Design the sequence.
């Protein structure tokens, strides 16, 4: 247990100490929030869908968590290259504990980032439907963070170099974001897109968050949460398996 | 304590370790001596669960590290040849993290850390980030960290590379002390013949992935009719210079590995 804690703590320390990175990683979601939130607002409203800012805020929060969580897992690449990964891999600690410590650390960082964006949303004029559901919103955010931190760990375990990093970012993480319904409503989509969005784990995260924050869930809370939990389990198992097989 | 039978490691069609066998007794200091690229680090990686052997059998304290990975890891400590510190944390934090991972009890932790940081002259810099350290300081920290717990087996992969003579001396004094008082089994690799001569009970000379001779320093000298271990070493491995840095072919292989489904 203490191994999990100390590795979790390390991820947190790294986060707190890299202030420049914090600011940089918040810039992108803020841009989406402000430009899309206010820029597409009038069109969205005319189409009879209400406020786009209200609609997109849960999407931007999910996006922040997605990027931050997967990135922290993939950042294992740096530990591999600078050598620290070895130190943890030969330690007399079951590798699954090392993996869980790292993954929970990454998930916690992502949750903090998501919370900062949630605050930014509130400042920009986002108004949640029920304040009483806020704790539930954090729970959902945490769940999304765990899902993608575990996925990031899985990627990080098989990545050997920077080219792979770019590939994963461009061909996995960006599509997961764009195909999740973070930016558009899931109702009345063309059939192929509807199918693809349903295969995207983030879809259920965004939808669950919309359910709790603006009372506008497409699939329903029960389906969203049970699917997210199942996906989290699956990704944790996958990440744990791939991590345990790392050779240096 | 360490038993190796017909150990082989291939990277693609390149054989880095070619069918080696040796035994290290409990309480023994055993040195692997060999030119760059001989396969020393690869052997250590297989012994310490970082790499799977292509074939062959290993036993560490009666355990097979390819099967009982976790149990095997509890038997040893290691100082790597390459850096393995967390440069975003301070020297003290690196020591603390290691102490937690290696289950050094909370009671002795602070005292041990202080003692070792002082011995390796890092105590004044304990709260500085490792990324601000010079190469020599990082190396000293790696070594101090390696002595934080007392394992049954201690692996030292070219521990003195880039160290000043004072620290080198400290290191070997400490290793000998551990070996005498705790009966720690030591498996080390080095480039420096005088070190192997001074500390090792037995020496194996490895070249091109194979063991070309093993025995005490005395036996190796007799076998080759040499005056010094250095002469014996050159007689056994030839005098051509080996290049350690990865060739461009190696780098290509790294990239190729990323694309292939299995490694
Ligand atoms: N992951 C790897 N992929 C391909 N070749 C490798 C790999 N690791 C080591 N080698 C090669 O194996 C040989 C032995 O390396 P190593 O064990 O590090 O030598 P030593 O530690 O004795 O200097 C070298 O030629 C090296 O280039
Ligand atoms: Mg080496």
Sequence:
């Amino acid at each position: 247990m203490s191994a999990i804690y100390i590795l979790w703590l390390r991820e947190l320390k790294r986060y707190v100490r890299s202030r420049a990175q914090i600011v940089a990683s918040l810039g992108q979601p803020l841009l989406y929030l402000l430009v899309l939130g206010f820029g597409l607002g009038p069109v969205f409203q005319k189409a009879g869908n209400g406020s786009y800012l209200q609609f997109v805020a849960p999407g931007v929060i999910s996006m922040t968590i997605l990027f931050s969580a997967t990135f922290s897992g993939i950042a294992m690449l740096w530990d591999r290259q600078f050598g620290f990964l070895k130190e943890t891999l030969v330690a007399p600690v079951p590798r699954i504990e090392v993996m869980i410590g790292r993954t929970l650390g990454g998930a916690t960082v992502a949750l903090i980032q998501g919370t900062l964006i949630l605050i930014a949303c509130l400042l920009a004029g986002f108004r949640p439907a029920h304040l009483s559901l806020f704790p539930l919103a954090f729970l959902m955010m945490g769940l999304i963070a765990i899902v993608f931190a575990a996925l990031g760990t899985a990627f990080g375990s098989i990545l050997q170099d920077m080219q792979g990093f770019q590939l994963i970012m461009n061909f996995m993480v960006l599509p997961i974001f764009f195909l999740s319904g973070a930016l558009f409503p899931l109702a009345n989509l063309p059939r192929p897109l509807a199918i693809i969005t349903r295969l995207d784990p983030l879809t259920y995260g965004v939808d669950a968050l919309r359910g709790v924050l603006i009372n506008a869930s497409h699939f329903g809370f029960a389906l969203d949460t049970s699917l997210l939990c199942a996906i989290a389990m699956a990704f944790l198992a996958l990440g744990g398996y791939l991590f345990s097989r790392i050779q240096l | 304590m360490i038993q190796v039978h017909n150990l082989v490691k291939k990277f693609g069609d390149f054989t880095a370790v070619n069918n080696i066998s040796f035994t290290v007794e409990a309480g023994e200091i055993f040195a692997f001596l060999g030119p760059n690229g001989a396969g020393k680090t690869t052997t250590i990686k297989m012994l310490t669960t970082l790499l799977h052997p292509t074939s062959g059998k290993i036993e560490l304290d009666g355990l097979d590290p390819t099967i009982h990975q976790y149990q095997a890891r509890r038997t040893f400590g290691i100082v790597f040849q390459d850096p393995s510190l967390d440069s975003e944390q301070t020297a003290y934090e690196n020591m603390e993290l290691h102490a937690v991972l290696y289950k050094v009890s909370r009671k002795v932790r602070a005292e041990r850390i202080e003692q070792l940081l002082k011995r390796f002259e890092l105590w004044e810099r304990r709260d500085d980030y490792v990324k601000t350290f010079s190469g020599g300081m990082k190396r000293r920290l790696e070594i101090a960290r390696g002595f934080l717990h007392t394992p049954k087996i201690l692996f030292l992969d070219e521990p003195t590379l880039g160290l000043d003579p004072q620290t080198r001396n400290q290191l070997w004094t400490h290793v000998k002390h551990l070996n005498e008082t705790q009966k720690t089994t030591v498996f080390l690799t080095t480039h420096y013949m005088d070190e192997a001569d001074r500390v090792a009970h037995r020496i194996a000379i490895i070249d091109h992935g194979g063991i070309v001779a093993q025995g005490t320093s005395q036996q190796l000298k007799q076998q080759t009719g040499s005056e010094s271990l250095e002469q014996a070493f050159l007689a056994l491995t030839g005098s051509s210079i080996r290049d350690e840095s990865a060739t461009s072919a190696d780098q290509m292989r790294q990239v190729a590995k990323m694309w292939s489904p299995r490694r």
Notes: The first strand of chain B starts at residue 2 and ends at 11. The pocket of magnesium ion (ligand 2) is lined by residues B 40-41, 81, 157-158 (CB under 6 Å). Chain B touches chain A at residues 45, 48-52, 69-70, 73-74, 76, 78, 80, 82-89, 93, 96-98, 100-103, 254-255, 257-258, 263 (CB under 8 Å). The CA atoms of residues 221 and 231 of chain B lie 8 Å apart.
